């Protein structure tokens, strides 16, 4: 057994507990440890990625209990990819929070580590109930981070977010119970081997359970009709936290890919491709709703939130085709949209800080400090999010369009993706020109001050947090440029990943075969 | 027995959903609690209902009950208890900060009394 596999969960768990004790006493040590841990995790998951890309899926049996009985962690290419993305994001965004968000309360770094632990665990686990537990861990940490720093609007949005997710957790349990009652297993690989054998009379129950799970994952991925929580939550969370949340919607997308290719794929008999007829229309509506929201956004943070919804629509549309080609395109777009969304949220936070009382609301206000620099970064991020050439968003959308050519709903997919790109371009150029070009007269400043609904802490001293958020944002955008330049090798690697995902026998053999080997 | 368990799950869920839709924090917390009770009873039943049967292997007994759902229920109880406590604290903070207890993003104006929307 490769013991390194458990470390992405173990390290943040241990460090998080230590940080609870240290954070109160010495913020500098806490900060150093937290950054060091994120950097170490990144190095670790990159080496895991290297292992995963040459070898068959690797299994770590927790407590050495054999597979269908104990809980296993599984490292395959898809999981390794998500781990690298999550930990890269966690490190960069954590840098941007240093000296800013982490000064407002004591336990920021501890919560951050627990959040990373939950995300890593959700990507690694091979067991449904364990997935539920990791979802709860990442959610409870996200509740803490979301309301970090307090403030009236933030708390209101936080309560809403918690309630929505608690209902989601309840549905998750019901779905897991349904699936267990029919198949008698919670292990994903074991489930995959049992689904074809389910009696015809029980199949409706199994499908109900699986589709309930789809609903729960869709809630995490902010899919229409359960997307309504996202704009409010992301708009009111601190910028660094919203940027980290860019990976949380992808946890939902990952879970959809994992479950519905592994257990309900080609080999599932009467249950094969169970999710496709539901997922595709929902993803289309999501894209439309997200980009319409971009047009109607009242603030930059809302704009960024709705663009995340739109990108989830594009991503899941490609996932819903359930072909190897489309999955590879979807994974490329996933990498791109996570980095782009995180950069956008960090930028919005910086702009709001440097605009005085107006914050990030889309209205004419006094000029932004450091406008040329921020404007240029915003321009790059907007190009990336809209999917304009030359950045990776364009390549991602192109790959998705190309992979959808064979599909029966190709005309719908092409029309929607191209049409909503136009909406996004209009929305972003309107917002950008309003913020950076129309900001003039001091007389307008009073109008902005009188808004009343602003965050109490909104009028923070300018340029707080120094250059680190700028560095983090630039690094994220540089990641996008890298993704564009190396699009060839990356998409080749992703092709192999998609091929592995579409061959669930590899995963099942690794999990159940490894169990036999250990006995 | 089956009827009793099934109807209790149904009644708890119905009451929970009704309270959840009231959109004020106190009924919502109660609704979530009822929903989690319903889920727990339901999870308990997923291992099939067996009376007077041990969950452990014993040479003298031929009939067992499934121990796994019981373990799941224990985990679920702990998690939902913790989550409810957190929600109560956050709801109180939110209420003391904003002066109303809507959870649906309703009128944010501080002057609006909760009674207006009941």
Keywords, separated by commas or semicolons:
heterodimer; A: 519 residues; mainly alpha; 2% strand; globular; B: mainly alpha; Helix Hairpins; 3 helices; 61% helix; disordered C terminus
- Beginning-to-end CA distance, first to last residue of chain B: 38 Å
Order of helices and strands of chain B: HHH
- The overall pLDDT average of chain A reads 88
Structural class by secondary-structure content of chain B:
mainly alpha
Strand content of chain B: under 5%
Q: Describe the largest sheet of chain B.
A: none
DSSP helix fraction of chain A: over 70%
Strand order of the largest sheet of chain A: 1-2
Structural class of chain A, by secondary structure, is mainly alpha
Beta-strand content bin of chain A: under 5%
Assembly category = heterodimer
Distance between the termini of chain A: 13 Å
- The number of distinct helices of chain B, counting runs of at least 4 residues, comes to 3
Could you tell me the number of beta strands of chain B? Answer: 0
Number of helices of chain A: 20
Shape descriptor of chain B reads elongated
Using CB atoms under 8 Å apart, which protein chain pair has the greatest interface? A-B, 32 and 35 residues
CATH architecture of chain B: Orthogonal Bundle
Topology overview:
The complex is a heterodimer of chains A (519) and B (118).
Chain A: H1 7-25, H2 27-54, E1 58-61, E2 72-75, H3 77-97, H4 108-124, H5 128-146, H6 152-183, H7 188-194, H8 203-220, H9 229-236, H10 239-262, H11 276-296, H12 300-320, H13 324-353, H14 371-386, H15 392-403, H16 410-436, H17 443-449, H18 468-485, H19 487-501, H20 504-518
Chain B: H1 2-20, H2 25-45, H3 67-98
Helix pairs in contact in B: 1-2, 2-3
